[in-house]
Each structure stands twice: as C-alpha cells, then as structure tokens.
Amino acid sequence: MDAVEKAGSGHPGTAMSLAPAAYLLFQRTMRHDPTDPTWIGRDRFVLSCGHSSLTLYIQLFLSGYGLNLDDLKRLRQWDSVTPGHPEHGHTAGVETTTGPLGQGLGNAVGMAMAARRERGLFDPDAAPGASPFDHHIWCFVSDGDIEEGISHEVSAMAGHQKLGNLTVVYDDNHISIEDDTLIAKSEDVVKRYEAYGWHTLSVDWTRTGDYVEDVAALHAALEESRAETDRPTFIQLRTIIGWPAPNKQNTGKIHGSALGADEVAATKTILGMDPALSFEVPGDVLDHARDVARRGHEAHAQWEKSYTAWRQANPERAAELDRISRHELPGGWASALPSFEPGASIATRKASGEVLSALAPVLPELWGGSADLADSNNTTMKGEPSFIPEEYQTKEFPGNRYGRTLHFGIREHGMGAILNGIALHGGTRPYGGTFLVFSDYMRPAVRLAALMKLPVVYVWTHDSIGLGEDGPTHQPIEHLWALRAIPGLDVVRPGDANETAHAWKTVLEHSDRPAALALTRQNLPVFEGTSADGVARGGYILHEASDGRPQVILIATGSEVELAVNARELLEAQGVPTRVVSMPCVEWFQGQDIAYKQTILPSSVKARVAVEAGVALGWREFVGECGEVVGLEHFGASAPYRTLYEQFGLTAERVAAAARSSLAKLGHDKGETTGN
User: Fold this and answer.
1) What is the pLDDT of residues 354-366, one digit of tens each?
2) What is the mean pLDDT of residues 202-218?
3) What gap in Å lies between CA 47 and CA 40, rounded to an integer?
4) Full 3-state SS string of 260-329
5) Are 350 and 362 a contacting pair, CB within 8 Å?
6) What is the average pLDDT across 119-140?
7) Residues 6+ away with beta carbon under 8 Å from 7
8) Residues 388 and 161: beta-carbon distance below 8 Å
C-alpha cells in the first residue's frame, strides 16, 4: 500500500491478497538461495501477472536478494530496480520480464520443458528426484493471464507434455479492471485445466463465509503439487483482492490505483498497525524473514555435494555444461556447416534444414521445431528423436521425454513464449518455425525476446509472394519492415543457400539477441562469390561493376538478389557499370562502422535501386532522394509465383528501368541522334 501510495500509481490489490501465498512460497516451498540468484539448481518463480510486481519485489526484499526499503520507495521511478513490471536482467531474482498477460505462463512452460531437456542432456539415467538437475517451476497467474488466448496454447502443450515439474497458482479473485469478471468470463477454469490433462487442486479462502487466509491448506496443495511428477499442477486459489481494505477490497478500483491515504490508514488499523507509520518493517520481522537466506544457503550446500559427485562421475558432460552455460560454441564447430555448389538451385528453407541437420552432432544445445509445419519449414534435424512423452510418439515422429525435436502444434503465439522460457532457463539455444506471415501471431513474444536480449532463432519460411498459389492471406508484404522495426531483433533474409549457411553461423555466434531467418519456398540459384564475412556484416558487394566504378548500385535481399544480378547484366550490356549489393540483414549492416558502409554504399554513387518483394518503407533511407525502390505496396494474389512476379513487376527488366530512372534524376540520361 505504501509503495503504490508514494509512487502515485501501481497495482496494490493483487499484491495485498497474494502476499501470504508469495511469502509461503519463498519461505517454505521454493528451493532458492538469495545469496546466489543464478544457482542452476534453484527452483524458478514466474510472476505472470507482472502488473502485481510488488508481489515479487517485496519477497525479494524480505528474502535478502539485495532490494532494500529505499528500492520499494522508488517503485516505478526513473532508474530504479523496481520498475512497474519486473524486468529480467534488471533486478536480481527476476527470472523473466512479465507484464503482457499470459506471456509469463508461456515462459514457465518453456522453463519446465528446458529443465527436462537439460536433465536428458546431462543426467538422463538418474532416478526421479535424485539428479542435481531436478527442480521445479512455480508460476502465479491472474484472471488476465487465464483469459488471454496464449494461455490455452501453452497450457494445452504443458498438459500434453506431462510437465510434472510445473505448478501454476491461479489467483481467482473474480476482479479485473472492469470490476467483477462475471461481465466477461463464466467458464469453469478448473475443468478447463482438467481437460488439458493437468492435476488440479482448489484452495478457497472464502469457503467458511468469512475470509480466512488458510495458509496451511495452500502449503499442503503446494507440497502435493511437487509430489505429482507425471502432470503439471493447477491450483485454484480463491482470494479477495485488496483484503482487508474496508471500502475498496473486492472492487475493480483497487486493482490498478492507489488506495488513498484514508483507506491506507483504515486498513493498517484493521491489521493492528500504526496508521501514522509508512514503510514500517520491524527489525525482528525482517530478521525472521531473512533467515530464509540461511536455509537456502544450506540447501545449496547440500545440493552442491550431489552436483560435485555428478561432475566427478561425468567429466565430459560437466565440460559440456560449462561451455553451454557460458554460451560458448565448441572449437571448430563451423566446419560442420554445409556448402552448396554455385549454379545449383535450392530453396533457402531447404538449405536451412540441411544446416540444422549438419549442426545436430556438434551443437547439442541447439533444439527446436515448428508450429505443425516441419515439412514446410524444414526444421527437423535428421535422425533426432522428438521431445514427447513416449506414449504420444508417432510413426512419423518417434521420440521420448528427453528428445530434441519440438512439436508446438498450431500454436504460434504459445511457441514464441515457450521459446523465451527455454532461453531464459539456461544455455540451450531454441529455434521455432512457421510461415513468415504468421509471425504476426507471435509478435508479442518476439518483442519480449528482443527486450530481454534472448538468443532465440525464428525460422520463418514462405517469405514473400514467392510462395505462390496460397494467395494474399499467406503472402507477407509488410512483415519484413514491421519486424525490422523491433529494436534488438535481427531480421536475416539470405539470397541463396550459401548465404543461409553463413547466416546461421552468424546468428549462432550472437548470444545476446534474437534473430529471424526469412526463407524462401521457391528454389533460388546458388551464386558465385557469396561471402561469409559479408553476410556477417549484413551487406556486401556480390558483383562489382565491370570497371570497378559503379554508376548505379542495386541493393537486394532474399529471392530478389537474383533479380538484381540479372538486371545488372542488362545494365552492363547498355554500358552502365552496375554494382550488386546483397544485404541479408539491415541490422547487421547498420552496426558496421562508417568506413565499411561507405565502401559498400559510397555516398558519391547516388543512383541506387533497392529491390525486395514487400513494402518499400525503410529502403528509402538506403536509396536516398534520387533512388528508386522496386517492391510491393499492395497485397498479393493466388497464382504460380513466376506469374505473380511478372504481373506485379518484380522483374529484372523493371529493376533495370528503375536504375535508369534513378540515373535520369541525376542528369545521366542521354538522348540519341534521330536525323535533321
């Protein structure tokens, strides 16, 4: 109450009613060590209802994670470690950035999956509960999380995967911003989770007619959930939001605004506290709460014995764990990357699939799959088992609980949040695939990956009208630049098979940000002269002007590199020295120093054309006032892709014409003698 009052804004209600549950979890249930927030053997806690950030901050303060009262007094203020919603990497003890509802629940599912995968990598033969890699994921969710569609996607998947290392506590307080949730929600949430295959429990603090915070009942439920190892557990906790505020409890008003001085004073009086005191924490109370650090440190020390024994018995696996935890790649790994013969014809999605299969033996940390599009996205590593309970494996996809190939089903948004949870959990590198047009379904999770600087890889195929007959609903037009607008996301559109291999290499060498590979359905020619270093720099000279002094520069990405190469031949035949620049990644190119960028795109050459099968938008920056952009400012159509390119003017002839137009603007248009 005091923190929100001082900040002038915030969400006090849920933090008030969930305080006993959070305190119980941190003090008695969860295995954690406040002196080492990155201990790999710790349980993870995810506050999916991130608006109730005080639920987490106060426990971090009481447990001794480094927060102090001054930090709580600076809630939601500039440069504080207590921002409005918890942020991963900003505050010790915060496992993930939450706030957009449902995302944290998806992260928790991903963490539970990662914990099982990592156990399979490092200690698969240990008895249940006997491995140093056995730990639990705890997650608090609100009505808002449960109502968001992503909750269905990730919860269904958690049930199908039988994630017995996951417990979700649902704060069922019947209140959202618009007051009583009955106005918008009436389903039986517990039965919904039963249908997913979860173990369900209910704890009702209103069952007697009075409000009684029956902490013992909740503790029993939490312990029962830990004992249930074959199913995730869903605990419905019936609370009253804002209890015991006399006038605002159980109302929408207490959800997202300060109580006001009078209501704070009245509430403190009910609690037997001095209403004149603010941020009052008696020393003996704090000492009592902080004793959890001692207990956590002792638990850590006990765990360390089994961990040390494991390391001694498994030196190779221990070395692999150390490398993966540091996000280091093994020596010589890149030699496994395939190369493709110039002159061949191959879709970049197929090249990407060959890269993944080639890397499987040398990068055990790399794993992933797609949203039911494995054959289309080429995301399945050859010969690798699926990550699935044995009873759900199929003839097409055999596997086991420690497998490698992920099957997200048609759940793009859930896939995005789960990938984030996997990346947050440890050192493994997840990837997930779908069609580029359906990146729209997963955009909120992609944005959070960029915000948290997570090394997630998106394999987005069918990247243009080149997918052909499926038509405008499946043809991404605005997506490339919409995705490039996300700060911290690398959008990579390779122009041929070798650029695809080079792109994967560069992406995997970055451990501090997500990357998207935009790949073709249609075959593309494999060019002579592609450059691994050039791809890593985001843009490079694929073909130089015949005399080394270009009059015009053609900039292209992906499947349109072929158009630029062919247009260059037309222009050169007309006496126009032409340079082709392949620019697979705008973000990487923009990150180069000025000298390199000037080498590729010298300011002295103002005649330029950018060609990409999508909206022009950001290409204006590269071509300048006198340049031209050959693209699409409208939706596609259903037809064979060659017909679409021809009908929409995405041809070498049009690119050459655009180059001549740019030259004309600069006064380089020459007439011919026609007689007297």
Assistant:
1) 999 999 999 999 9
2) 97
3) 19
4) CHHHHHHHHHHCCCCCCCCCCCCHHHHHHHHHHHHHHHHHHHHHHHHHHHHHHHCHHHHHHHHHHHCCCC
5) no
6) 97
7) 75, 76, 77, 258
8) yes
Torsion 467-472-475-477 (CA) sign: positive
Q: How far apart are CA 229 and CA 162, in angstroms?
A: 8
Rg (CA), the chain: 28
Structure tokens at 439: 């990146």
Catalytic residue among 412, 499, 560, 628: 412
Contact between 337 and 358 (Cβ < 8 Å)? yes
Sign of CA dihedral 55, 56, 58, 63: positive
- Full strand arrangement of the beta sheet holding 457-461: 399-400, 386-387, 405-407, 366-370, 429-435, 457-461, 515-518, 490-492
Handedness of CA 14, 19, 24, 29 (dihedral sign): positive
Residue 671 has pLDDT above 80, yes or no: no
| H/E stretch holding 130 | none
Centre a 10 Å sphere on the Cβ of residue 669 and count the other Cβ atoms it contains.
10
Q: Which residues pair with 432 in a beta bridge?
A: 369, 458
Q: How many CB atoms sit inside 10 A of residue 331's CB?
A: 9
Measured distance CA(81)–CA(70) in Å, rounded: 10
Q: Is 412 a catalytic residue?
A: yes
Residue 612 one-letter amino acid: E
CA distance 615 to 474: 15
Residue 515, C-beta contacts closer than 8 angstroms, at least 6 positions apart? 455, 456, 457, 458, 489, 490, 491, 492, 507
Q: Give the C-alpha separation, 574 to 663, whole Å.
A: 13
User: Quick count: other Cβ atoms within 10 Å of Cβ 569?
Assistant: 14
Would you place residue 669 in the very low, low, confident or very high pLDDT band (cuts 50, 70, 90)? confident
